[in-house]
Amino acid sequence: MKNISLSFKVLLIVFSLLSFKPHYTQAKVRGIDSLLYTLVERWADRAYENYAYVRAIKRYETLVRRNFTNEKIYRNLASSYLKLNNAEESIKYTELLVKSGNFVPEDVYNLAYAYMFIGNYDKADEYLNKYKNLVENDTRADRQANIKEKISKFKSLSRFKLQKVEFNSKYSDFGPFYYDDKLYFVSERREDAIVNYEYPWKEAPYLDVYEVDLKGNVSSPNFFKDKVNTKYHDGPICFTKNGDEVFFTRNNSFLKVFPVKGKEKTVSLKIFHSKIVNGVLSSPKELPFNSSDYSCGHPSISADGKKLYFASDMPGGYGGTDIYMVERTDSGWTKPQNLGPEINTEGNEMFPFIHESGILYFTSNGHAGLGGLDIYMATPKGNGFVVINLGSPINSEKDDFSFYIDKDKKFGFFASNRPGGKGDDDIYKFYTLDLGTTLAGNVYDSNTKERLSNATIHLKDEKGNTVALKSDRNNDFVFNIKLDNNYFITAEIDGYKPYSTALSLPASKPASDTIHHDLYLDPLPFWGIFGKVYFKESHEVIPDVKLQVVNQQTNDTLIVLTDSAGEFRVKLEQNTKYNLLFSKEGLFSKRAEYSTENITPGWVNADKFIDLAFEKVELNKRIEIPNIYYDLGKWNIRPDAAVELDKVVQFLKDNPNIKVELGSHTDSRGSSKSNQILSQKRAQSAVDYIVNHGVSRDRITAKGYGETMLKNHCADGVKCSEEEHQQNRRTEIRIVGM
Question: From the CB of residue 357, how many other CB atoms can be counted at a distance below 10 Å?
Fold first, then answer.
């Protein structure tokens, strides 16, 4: 589908370019050769930035053959090949990037996408999982993960029979629209043109609209009326139901001579509109929501002529291109409305087709699919949509797009660049097969309304036949059913009560051939803790902190890491006591106890029983040990002091890589000499206690400071309260080694 991206400017989003100083591998390139290759690289970059991918590939490949390479050259080569649907070459260069470590997350996603394009779903899953670990909140990864498990389901949805058509050319043909026994479509064929203008994307003729009479000579399409076609890109096209208006896509042009560029120095696409009176088109007028700074295209008008659906890369969308809708009112067209995240993804959604039934068909590379672009059906439900992949044979590992189906849903057309076609992109006709009705739905948590994956679902008919499947990462299930049968559906998933119900089916088949039935499962009681760890001073979150959760009775240990937001969440057993240890190299570890005894089921924030603010381990950092008391003039360890020193023992065991000095301080009362001697004996006594309880002597030393480091003004001869003197009588540990 090489032409689709150009026909919509950036329908397939250009790879994100990492800002870096290129690291060249041409160590042996010297002098004039280096200057020449640098110049060729600039020419190649310019071609790439201008979407001239064929030209860019030729220049980049020249540099690769001369061993003049860097991350940008590999990335742009991989991107260019993928734009031209050469997934194998794209994989070769993207893998060089990923294996070298000089990659950005989008490189990993593109590698997964390329492997899907050639049907290698094992590799696609491998890199999708890697991408999920690199990037949060990208719905493409969630929808497409474990794609191999979804393929059998997509292929089982076969409800169509395909037929090749005679009017395809050796070029790209796509964007079919059927009206009044004629099929209108977009093609690169300008074989009889006196002058052939070519667009640089793949060095092929610009796109024009053609029509073919399906009751006449279908092998000879006609060039459509000249008020639509110009020397640049024109199409796809659609008509209103009664045929008195036409909407179509066109390059942003001025007097049909020079395309007008926007802020990004690219030529955008716009939607134009003409009225048809007695078979004559009025002069095309562009719609008011167009812009030179972004593209709008692929129009589809509703049966009542009041709603127009289209694709656009205007700012504020979810990804590369999104699907929007505008309404026609007495005062004109409304502001474009994005159809939302159930339709649009971080990828590209395009080629909307709104059916008379209200069902929206569209093309996407962001939803779960067989590879490349796939075609989807979106049925309105409440304020949103239920989206279903149309499955095989409509969809394949390659690009499948620009779907049209007639009002009775008996036949239709779409385009694909799958193997076996006549040209680049070919148009296929299909007939619908009466395979009954589809039962589809989602599995939800009845309390939170969050979608659940990996539920085991059984559908049992009145004869006792049972079909089982698991809800996938896209959270949906699909069964083929018959309306004259009775069914019983059950669902099971860990942590939830089993679900079962008899299905109540309608008497007649719905317009979409699909019945939606969502399952809401009640969660079982559970206990758990959650929280967010952060630095004490800056309050920045801390990822990858290890939390060890140890069952005090069984000694079973569960280990989790905080995520990139510093958050953790752990489910626990009822009526159980736990030891918790938080640790990360470079931070002081923390320990706490927690019990689920007499605790109400649900999540408990750990900051209710442990301070989740962490401090960095730094040389000479002092930590005061509270409540270390000695009898007057004594240095033996009292029972109350032993309790606090036991905490120091645990602290040192939890932080095995630090060495400390234990310092003892007195107040200023008494002679300096006696205070110095007493503090040293007390410090040594505390150290001996700690060593006797399992800490290596080479990790801790004793230091008596006497009254040399008072914390306040209470020096000799100064009258102070007992509370002020107590501030100076203290025990501290100081970090002296790591």
Answer: 16
CA dist 624 and 730 (Å) reads 7
Which domains, and CATH codes, for the chain?
2-156 (1.25.40.10), 160-435 (2.120.10.30), 438-506 (2.60.40.1120), 527-614 (2.60.40.10), 622-737 (3.30.1330.60)
Query: String of b and e for 110-149 (b: at least 16 CB within 10 Å)?
Result: bbbbbbbbbbbbebbbebbebbbebbeebbbbbbbbbbee
CA distance 656 to 422: 70
Q: CA nearest 438: which of 459, 412, 465?
A: 459
> Burial level of 290, CB count in 10 A (0-12/13-18/19+)?
buried
144-148, 381-385, 716-720 — which is least confidently predicted? 144-148
Record the pTM.
0.62
Phi/psi for 49 (5° steps) reads -65, -25
Q: Which residue has the tokens 């899953």?
A: 125
Write out pLDDT tens, residues 283-341. Answer: 999 999 999 889 999 999 999 999 999 999 999 999 889 999 999 999 999 999 999 99
The pair phi, psi for residue 56, each rounded to 5°, is -65, -45
Per DSSP bridges, beta strands 476-481 and 514-516 are unpaired
d(CA 44, CA 38) in angstroms, rounded, equals 10
What's the Rg (C-alpha) of the chain? 35
> Helix H segments across 13-163?
31-49, 53-65, 71-83, 87-100, 105-117, 121-134, 139-144, 147-156
Which sign, positive or negative, has the C-alpha torsion 111, 402, 382, 158?
A: negative
Alpha-carbon span 245 to 237, nearest angstrom: 11
- Write out pLDDT tens, residues 221-257: 888 876 787 877 888 999 999 999 999 998 865 444 4
For residues 384, 390, 395, 400, the Cα torsion angle rounded to the nearest 10 degrees is: -40
**Spatial distance between the Cα atoms of 361 and 357, rounded to a whole number of angstroms:** 11
**Residue 403 CB: number of other CB atoms within 10 A?**
23
Q: How far is 616 from 462, CA to CA, in rounded Å? A: 66
Return the sign of the alpha-carbon dihedral for residues 8, 9, 15, 16: negative
718 three-state secondary structure: coil
Using CA atoms, how far apart are residues 15 and 2, in angstroms rounded to an integer?
Answer: 16
Spacing of C-alpha 721 from chain mean position: 63
The position carrying tokens 């905080």 is: 562
Those residues with Cβ within 8 angstroms of residue 76's Cβ, 6 or more apart along the chain or in another chain: 15, 44, 45, 48, 56, 60
Nearest to 318 by CA among 366, 270, 353: 366
CB 49 within 8 A of CB 41: no
Note the pLDDT tens digit of each residue in 340-386: 999 999 889 999 999 999 999 999 988 888 888 999 999 888 888 88
